[in-house]
Hints:
Number of helices: 10
Number of strands: 4
Radius of gyration: 16 Å
Order of helices and strands: HHEHEHHHHEHEHH
Helix content: 40-55%
Largest sheet: 4 strands, parallel
Strand order of the largest sheet: 1-2-3-4
Distance between the termini: 37 Å
Amino acid sequence: MHGIGASGRYFMPLARRLAERNRVYAPDFPGFGRSAKPRRALTLQDLAGVLDEWMGHLSLGSAVMVGNSFGCQIVAELALRHPARLEAAAFLGPTIDRRARNAWSQAGRVVATAVREPAGLVRPLLADYLQAGIVRPLQTLRYALDDPLEAKLPHVDVPVLVVRGDGDAIVPQSWAEEVARLLPLGELVVVPGGAHVLNYDAAGAIADLLERAWNPAPDSG
């Protein structure tokens, strides 16, 4: 589940790795990527509803979901509204830190993190931002800032891996620890050398981590 302004395109490095052993979907939410562009930006509640309907259309009863950034907020909203849809989850760089719930703080953190992201990320994200335009991502950011994720986490009653890159200024260690602590079945993992977009810049490490969590090796004993 992609972040604000992005699409499933920047999930491809991780999706390809996971697809070696799993059926993988990388949707574009309405307004982003190759999806239709509704006249207004959809709220978190709208996006969770769209995700539920999309899964029904594909006859997907439930799934393990991987979210990055704002995508984690969508997964949390789905867990509250349609809990049967979620088997387990991975939150890669979950937003938004409750101590920095304003646009100026987030902008500063994005700039501080951007210099640590790989240069190759610029091309897919630029293409996505050009498709999304300016207004829609800003409206979606408003919904993200208004979302009290910390109040929802205690109700996400499935195993969740919270994954943070140690170079991620958007998601400081204190917030990542709080997210994992508030989740009933949360576990925190820190990826050395990773930044915010771990599904792109640390796809191999994340794929290995998720495979170990979801497809553990049989007990040789």
